[in-house]
Amino acid sequence: MAPVFPLAKLAFLFVKQVARPLSSSIKRRAVSSVFFREKFCLPPAKFYHWCEVRMKMYVMNSRRSSKTRTIPKLNEKAAIELGANLLGEGIIFSIAAAILAFEVSRQKEKERKKEEMEQNVIDTLQSQVSDLMFATEELDTKLREANKLLSTTQQELREIKTSSTAMRKGK
């Protein structure tokens, strides 16, 4: 169980390291492209900022006074940075979720194939058992016929013996 924690820590560190260059490239793209900045980068940042401030106000128990307070706007540079970080981590999370989903489906397929092989073995064994039962019944029938034939032959031999002894006495 001990190696699991360092591997999880290493995976988390890897995700963080990969997210940094991705978010910096998103920042560069947001600075250069107005469309990208306005449609993809700023809306998630503004929403995240709004949720964060509302939660902080709720936690600090200043909910009643929050109706009169407006949430301060995030400046554009901070919004671009926050949006780029959110998009970068979101992309990394999506990739990780896709890999996880792929791995789960692969494991399910592997398990399904294993169960299918086991079912084939069970079916084969059941077929062999039924064949053996049929062969046993057939041999049992032949044995009964052989016993009947033996009994009939023994009876005929006794009859022949008695008739031959009677013939010898009659001479």
Per DSSP, what share of the residues sits in E-state strands of 2 or more residues?
Answer: under 5%
The residue-averaged pLDDT reads 84
Shape: rod-shaped
Q: By helix and strand content, what is the structural category?
A: mainly alpha
Helical content class: over 70%
Strand runs, count:
0
Oligomer: single chain
Instruction: Give start-end ranges of low-pLDDT stretches.
Output: none
- Please give the radius of gyration in angstroms: 44 Å
Order of helices and strands: HHHH
Distance between the termini: 103 Å
Q: Could you describe the largest sheet, including whether it forms a barrel? A: none
Number of helices: 4
Coiled coil: 100-163
Transmembrane segments: 82-104
Pfam family, one: OPA3
Keywords: Coiled coil, Membrane, Transmembrane, Transmembrane helix
